[in-house]
Amino acid sequence: MDPFGRTYWVYILASGKHGTLYVGVTSDLSGRVYEHKAGITPGFTTKHGVHSLVYFETFGTIDEAITREKKLKRWRRDWKINLIERSNPDWIDLYEGIAHQMR
Q1: Residues with Cβ < 8 Å from 15, sequence gap 6 or more?
Q2: Structural domains in the chain plus CATH codes
């Protein structure tokens, strides 16, 4: 468990169903996804229009989250798609739900 009681998230963003994917890690899921959506930090997600939160997992320590993020980044694309579709078969943007919960 994190000594400061923080939660960490590994998340996957998509440009659309079966579109371009991005895997990231954060301690502020709602805030980080907002930054991606708003294009605050220029980079991959802004360039490729990857703004839809389609999957996330929670972790108690940053080390666990980073380990999982690195593992997912090495996964084949079809494995990531299967992971997303097990919990979010319609590729619904989960941002609104988490943004309201985390306020």
Answers
A1: 48, 49, 50, 51, 52
A2: 8-101 (3.40.1440)
Residue where the block lists tokens 């972790």? 59
Q: Beta-carbon neighbour count of residue 53 at 10 Å? A: 25
pLDDT tens digits, 19-66? 999 999 999 999 999 999 999 988 999 999 999 999 999 999 999 999
Output the pTM of the full model.
0.93
**Residue whose structure tokens are 């997992």:** 57
3-state secondary structure of 13: strand
What is the DSSP secondary-structure string of 30-65?
Answer: HHHHHHHHHT-S-SHHHHHT--EEEEEEEESSHHHH
CB-based contact 89:54 (threshold 8 Å): no
Alpha carbon distances (Å) from 1 to 60, 63, 67: 5, 10, 15
